Amino acid sequence: MSKLIILDHPLIKNKISMLRNKNTGNKEFRELVDEIATLICYEATRDVPLTNVNIETPLGKTVAQVTEKKFGIVPILRAGIGMTNGILRFIPNAKVGHIGLYRDPETLKPVEYYCKLPVDSKDREIFLTDPMLATGGTASAAIKFLKDRGVKDIKLLCLLSTPKGVAKVNKEHPDVDIYTAEHDKGLNDHGYIIPGLGDAGDRLFGTK
Fold it and tell me: What is the pLDDT of residues 3-28, one digit of tens each?
């Protein structure tokens, strides 16, 4: 069963509180999402394996530790894009792909309209980013699309999650761990996370 990792760092909680505030403007909102994404990535890479290498400092020789693991970032369009730069700041050599989904108005199922991934995605640990894990439908579908293309090592990074969203991902993808800054109580009748922070995409890009 996949793990749900809820980050409890005081600075993350402080930044999430600022994100929730309806009076936080678009510029500050983008900057906060960027910063929180960096902190989530820090936790999501805690288990990265290291290899010993011999190096020489200006004062002598020593054994240092490096990672040879390769990473990729795949934001779910469009709000997931807001988390990309924060992760790239922490892992600048990561490659970036994109997945676009929309919900069919009749079947209510996610439909892929765009997918562009690094050619070596199957050899990378992929961070799938989506600020809001609400019902879990979109995230679960995106994970399936990645797996259909040979990706095996996936972690889901989000700002807010709900019990329903986590349960769906756990059921359909028990091998995918979920990293979230906050775990909210649920959804309203329109599918928005409560208390949430509103529509992340609109607040990132200044749209309605």
Answer: 999 999 999 999 999 999 999 999 99
